[in-house]
Specification:
Layout (H helix, E strand, L loop, with lengths): L8 H17 L3 E7 L9 E7 L2 H17 L6 E3 L6 E5 L3 E7 H7 L1 H4 L5 H12 L1 H5 L12 H14 L15
Parallel strand pairs: 2-5
Antiparallel strand pairs: 1-2, 3-4, 4-5
């Protein structure tokens, strides 16, 4: 009988470590376990490994499938098996990604799912704790006013720049 069971965190960690050991026996290379419990809702762990050829990747996928069945855990799906350049074995709490070397470098899941640096985590925590800070609108600063002497000079320049109107002089003629 195959069924899905909710496991404790320590049981999940033990399961993924045992699966890693099983794939090591089959000569999987460069294995990495990525803990996603705090960052993803669809799974708890990724186990990423590399195989040396199409046949090797397919054999690793079959071994992961066999491991889940022995643990009486349901495999939700296996994708990519015919080509075997990237095979995904979805075990629910643990998703196994098996690559050939070139495909692993191209997709680079470790970089994509790497945890954020500690500085970003702190900023993220501050933003989630105090959302009102995010809502404040920041107005751009006003340009500084010119100094008093600069303003006087500007006024004089403006007056000097205006053309002067010719003043009409009325000439009174004197009677002789």
């Amino acid at each position: 009988m195959i069924y899905t069971v909710s496991m404790s965190k320590s049981e999940q960690e033990l399961l993924v470590r045992r699966l890693k050991g099983r794939l090591e026996e089959k000569k999987a290379l460069d294995m990495v376990i990525i803990d996603l419990r705090e960052r993803a809702s669809f799974t708890d762990f990724f186990l990423v490994a590399t195989g040396t050829s199409q046949t090797h990747v397919a054999a690793l996928a079959e071994e992961a499938d066999r491991f889940f069945h022995e643990q009486k855990l349901r495999v939700l799906s296996i994708a990519g098996l015919p080509e075997a350049t990237w095979v995904l074995v979805d075990g629910g709490d643990v998703v196994v990604h098996l690559f050939q070397q070139e495909a692993r470098g191209f997709y680079d899941l470790e970089r994509l799912w790497a945890p954020p640096p500690p500085v970003n985590r702190r900023i993220e925590e501050e933003l989630t704790e105090k959302p009102e800070k995010v809502k404040k609108k920041i107005k751009p600063p006003k340009p500084p006013k010119p100094a008093q002497s600069e303003r006087r000079g500007k006024v004089k320049e403006e007056k000097a720049a205006k053309p002067k109107r010719a003043q009409s002089k009325s000439v009174k003629s004197k009677k002789l």
